[in-house]
Design a protein that fits this description.
Layout lengths: L31 H4 L10 H11 L10 H11 L9 H9 L11 H12 L3 E11 L10 E3 L3 E4 L2 H7 L6 E13 L11 E4 L3 E10 L5 E7 L25 H4 L13
Helix pairs in contact: 2-3, 3-5
């Protein structure tokens, strides 16, 4: 058994200027089948995956998600032998790129996915994520992550399944707007917490641990020059309400350095 790929993809974050996402909020809320009909070219056997999600999702009346919203989250967590054929991989690949035209087929699913996530309460606490290799040099001060960042609330989940012959960077993140999706996941044992696209992170420390792992300690935060309710300058959110749908309408601050965080 190996750790789910999306928990160890922090090295895929571009840490550079990304075009804002527009138009998704104009999409109507539809069924998951309808929301994914344009993804058949991108995701092989997407219809079968949707059927699995609709059959196996866990109903949780606490947060008032619809069947299709809950199933959209479940669909995001479905893994395949080849990670690049999953919904999470393909969606994040586009979110982390400037090829905004590639996002068009995803807008309907993105609308449904975010509608469900917005109904979940934001959580605060320490969560964990990994990257392959030593990426500490890319983190100088503050930065922004543009994909949906899969983290876990249980560090041992990642420790248990990592290849000890390879180098990794451990991210310890103090989050304030995490979305716990383990109740809606195909792998609830992974205790998955999502950070939304456009999450602003402050560098607290970095270095190497005694076990050979590199580490980066980050704190989710609001830039000091922003007033409450003021959106970030280049892509993503208003932190006073923490609503996911505003992560895409307004612009978010970006690092000046095209290769490293600010």
């Amino acid at each position: 058994m190996t750790v789910t790929e999306r928990f160890v993809d922090a090295d895929e974050e571009p840490l550079r200027r990304i075009m804002p996402i527009e138009d998704y909020e104009n999409e109507p809320l539809v069924t998951l089948q309808e929301a994914t009909k344009n993804l058949q070219r991108s995701i092989k056997k997407i219809n079968a995956m949707v059927r699995i999600a609709k059959k196996n999702y866990i109903s949780d009346p606490t947060n008032n998600l619809t069947v299709d919203e809950a199933a959209a989250i479940y669909l995001y967590t479905i893994e395949k032998k080849k990670a690049h054929k999953t919904v999470s991989f393909q969606l994040n690949r586009i979110l982390r790129s400037n090829e905004r035209n590639e996002l068009t087929p995803w807008l309907s699913y993105l609308r449904l996915f975010l509608s469900g996530l917005n109904k979940l309460p934001s959580i605060k606490g320490t969560i964990w994520r990994f990257a392959r290799g030593d990426v500490t040099g890319n983190y100088q001060t503050d930065c922004v992550w543009f994909g949906f960042s899969s983290c876990t609330g249980i560090k041992l989940v990642l420790d248990r399944f990592l290849d000890r012959t390879s180098m990794y960077t451990l991210f310890r993140i103090e989050c304030i707007n995490g979305k716990s999706i383990h109740n809606y996941s195909s792998r609830p044992d992974e205790d998955e917490v999502l950070l939304m696209p456009g999450t602003y992170l402050r560098l607290m420390s970095k270095g190497k641990l005694q076990n050979g792992l590199c580490f980066v300690h980050l704190q989710e935060n609001v830039p000091q020059y922003l007033h409450p309710g003021q959106p970030l300058e280049f892509s993503s959110s208003t932190y006073d309400t923490h609503r996911t749908d505003q992560y895409f309408r307004s612009p978010t601050i970006q690092p000046n350095d095209q290769k490293k965080c600010m």
